[in-house]
Amino acid sequence: MGTRLKNLFEEVRESKISYVLLLPYVVYFLVFLAYPLLFAFYLTFHEWVIITPEKPFVGLDNYIKLLHDEVFWASMKNVLVYLSINLPAQMILSLALALLVNQQIRFRGFFRSVFFMPTVVSGVVVSTVFLWLYSPQFGLLNYYLGMIGIPPQRWITSIDQAMPSIAIMSSWRQVGYFAVIYLAGLQAIPPVLYKASSVDGANTWQQFWHITFPLLNPTILLVLMVSTIWGFLVFTEPFVMTEGGPLYATTTPTLYLYFEAFRYLRMGYAATVGVVLGLFILIINIVEKKWVEREISY
Amino acid sequence: MIKTGKQWISKTVIYAILIVVTVIEFAPFLWMILSSFKTRLEAFTFPPIWVPHAPTLEGYRFIAEQFPLLRTALNSIIITAAVVILNLVLNSIVAYPLARHRFPGRNLVFWIILATMMIPFNLILIPLFIIVVRLHWVNTYWGVILPYAMNAFNIFLFVQYFKTIPQELSKAARIDGCSELGILFRIIWPLSKPVLITVGILTFIQTWNLFLWPLIVLQDQTMRTLPLTLATLKGVHGTEWNALMAMATIISLPVVLLFVWLQKYIVAGMAQTGLKG
Question: Do B117 and B196 fall within a single domain?
Answer without folding.
Answer: yes
